[in-house]
Amino acid sequence: MRNPYFFPPGKGKQHAPLLTEVIRDIKAALHAQAKRLKRREYLLTANVPLTPELALSCGLDVAAWDAEELFDAANEPRKLSLVGSMGHAFNASAIPAILAAVNWALETVPAPRLA
Q: Which tens digits make up the pLDDT trace of 70-85?
């Protein structure tokens, strides 16, 4: 893990609600797409630091995500990789670019058919 922090040192806990809102938006987009396609729910997984305390200091309030059932599984001790330059493909900053990428994938990639 190169750098698990999404905010300046000491600011992760203060700014964690921003990333929680992003996760809420992604979960809502997945739910809406599943409903639109009349298919079962998409699963959302997150790569997070090893402990909830470390995650929170990085800006990831995994305990809040869990309480709101915003994700279905977590892979640890990795992290969700949000890099500022990720937005270059969509000519946007990273957070809106992630939502655009999720929406694009949901609209273009066919859902697997379940037996």
A: 988 877 543 344 444 4
Name all contacts of 2-10 with Cβ < 8 Å and 24+ positions apart. 4/49, 4/54, 4/58, 4/79, 5/57, 5/58, 5/59, 6/58, 6/59, 6/60, 6/82, 7/58, 7/59
Cβ atoms of 15 and 7 within 8 Å: the answer is yes
Q: Please identify every stretch of the chain with a pLDDT value under 50, giving residue numbers as ranges.
A: 1, 77-87, 90, 114-115
Round to the nearest angstrom and report the end-to-end CA distance of the chain. Answer: 38
Choose among 70, 56, 62, 71: nearest CA to 13: 56
Assessment of whether the complete model's pTM goes beyond 0.70: no
Neighbouring C-beta atoms of residue 48, cutoff 10 Å: 22
- Residue 106, burial from CB neighbour count under 10 angstroms (0-12, 13-18, 19+): middle
